[in-house]
Amino acid sequence: MSIDKDLQSREIITKAVCGKGRRFSHVSHTVTPSHAPTSILGAWIINNQYEAVKSGGDGVEVVGTYDINIWYSYDRNTKTDVAKETISYVEVVPLSYLDKRHRVSTAEVSALATQEPNCVEASVASGGRVIIRVEREFQVEMVAETKVSVYVNPRGFMDSDDKVADFDDSSIEGDYEDLDPDMLEDDFS
After folding, report:
1. Residue 100 CA from chain centroid, whole number
2. What pLDDT score was predicted for residue 9?
3. Which residues pair with 170 in a beta bridge?
4. Are the CB atoms for 45 and 119 separated by under 8 Å?
5. 71: which strand partners?
6. How far apart are CA 142 and CA 93, in angstroms?
7. I need a surface site. Which of 2, 58, 93, 175 has the fewest CB within 10 A?
8. pLDDT tens, 139-154?
9. What does the alpha-carbon distance between residue 28 and residue 32 come to, in Å, rounded to a whole number?
10. Measured distance CA(133)–CA(30) in Å, rounded
């Protein structure tokens, strides 16, 4: 009697992760404060809010906003002020893994900021403008219905009493006592 003849396959429809992607990016924004800045004293990004949206292609769009705050001096470093600006963005994250067999109508997408938007450089430019360089990273996931193939035995489970598994490792206990730890460190150096 052949076991292969006894096996049958079934397709199960289930929800599963059918797509994943990650994108790291640098972007620049230009902010024009109310006074011509002499120097930048600090720049930071707060209030990052975003959501994932299905994209037409093999990607996910992360649509969001954040606030840029720039603390700067002006009037030859005699006064300070804070410039605030809300930035809108769309980051398209390509799916590096995509199960083409998923049901498109059931797809749900989500995004996670693995690196919140962060100001890495702020500099004074001509015309009283400030250029802010921002880095950010998003990870996206798509969950959808898909088919999974499994093999089944129409007779059910075989009697498990016939099978014995012995996980007793006491017989190898002494094998590690003879190891020289100094020798192992030399081999890996």
Report:
1. 21
2. 87
3. none
4. yes
5. 42, 82
6. 11
7. 2
8. 999 999 999 888 887 7
9. 13
10. 9
